[in-house]
Amino acid sequence: MTDQGTEPDSTDVVVVGGGPSGCAAAVFTARYGLDTVVFDRGNAAFRRCAYLENYLGFPAGIGVDTFTALMHEHVAEVGADYVADMVVSVERPGDDAGGNASDADARRFVVRTQDDRRVEADYVVAAAWYDGDYLRGLDDDDAMFEEHDHHGEVHEHFDASYADDDGRTPVEGLYVAAPSGERNAQVGIAAGQGGHVARCLIEDRRRERGFPGDLARHYDWLRADTEFQGEWGDRDRWREWFESEVPDDADLDDERLAELRESYIDRAFDTRRTDHEVETAEPRGIRRLVEAIGTERVLDALPDEALADYLDGRELGGVEQ
Ligand SMILES: Cc1cc2nc3c(=O)[nH]c(=O)nc-3n(C[C@H](O)[C@H](O)[C@H](O)COP(=O)(O)OP(=O)(O)OC[C@H]3O[C@@H](n4cnc5c(N)ncnc54)[C@H](O)[C@@H]3O)c2cc1C
Question: Rounded to the nearest whole angstrom, what is the distance from the C-alpha of residue 126 to the centroid of ligand 1?
Fold first, then answer.
């Protein structure tokens, strides 16, 4: 967790909720290069899960605390700030500024927390499954909330259909990864939805910056070096392809189009990984897993014979050296 005082008071993206939906969203926005802060405190569905047996890739399941630690490590690894604090309100004061604020300022959200933090952000991703109250300042209650009869008592709930399937809402810059109805009902799907909503946010941002048509879409892919061999190793071939993808009705001057094209190609080439890079990434990945899980627990999990063989091997290795 980041110490209070060293956190930014201004960021690109605030994610409200550090469960599976929010952490997945933060991994995508931060990897794209957007400064991202995740606030996380309050009612959590995930903490009510006894043990996670159906998340792909963990054949015998994984403990909720261990999985949570891994999610938070991942958020840290991509450079996002994780802050254990609860968001109490999100507002856009620029809406009331009567046209005095510049467009960019007027669009900024002000996020306030239980521990008196105040952070300005261009985008907010709501990812708190049980909570939408903090969003009340952004639109009419009638639009965001629905009434629900529970054993004769009327309750208000954030209306999951306020956002569309991609998490976009009528409030520009506000995205909802949770609550999003049934998509939050399983951890694997909630994580997928968080990532999807973040990709839509990134696409919208790219569109605002001028990327036309499908060129605004962003794919967080890494590609083997071999994919860049032959003609696709040549930037001119990419330039030619980019130009062919620009829709006829794109309204961009040549200079801006060239800037966008070069930044598109830079990003594409950044996804290139050599065999050597992949070979060094894998042991580092395993090491980060072991660190997050804890060396003691990993050693405890080794069958006795395997541990004895390993220690013998190390001793022999020591003698030989
Ligand atoms: C009893 C039970 C058992 C379950 N078992 C399974 C299972 O075995 N397998 C499975 O796939 N799914 C299971 N689920 C579902 C699973 O928990 C959800 O799919 C998943 O947790 C949804 O993730 P989320 O990030 O959308 O929401 P959450 O897990 O609820 O995460 C939201 C996060 O936001 C934080 N938060 C809330 N309000 C605020 C705020 N105002 N400001 C900042 N942070 C806030 C919370 O502290 C929390 O960490 C179970 C659910 C329950 C209730």
Answer: 13
The residue whose CA is least distant from atom 46 of ligand 1 is 44
Alpha helices by DSSP H, listed for 79-233, are 103-106, 141-144, 187-208
Q: Tell me, using a 6 A CB cutoff, whether residue 125 lines ligand 1.
A: no
Residue 294: closest CA among 70, 74, 47: 70
Cα distance between residue 47 and residue 25, in whole Å: 19
Q: Is 71 in the pocket of ligand 1 (CB under 6 A)?
A: no
Q: Per residue in 102-154, pLDDT tens?
A: 667 778 999 999 999 999 999 999 999 998 999 999 999 889 999 888 888 88
Q: How far apart (Å, rounded) are the C-alpha atoms in residues 242 and 256?
A: 13
Structure token digits, residue 178: 């949770």
The ligand 1 atom at the shortest distance from the C-alpha of residue 20 is 25
| Encoded tokens for 211 | 């990327």
pLDDT at 308 over 70: yes
Q: Is the CB of 54 under 6 A from ligand 1?
A: yes
pTM for this prediction = 0.93
CATH of 9-206, one of 3.30.70.420, 3.40.50.1820, 3.40.50.300, 3.50.50.60: 3.50.50.60
Among 21, 23, 46, 193, name the best residue to mutate to test ligand 1's pocket (greatest count of ligand atoms within 8 A of Cβ): 46
What residue segments make up the domains of the chain, in order of their start?
9-206, 209-273, 275-320
Residue in 140, 137, 143, 141 with CA at minimum distance from that of residue 124: 137
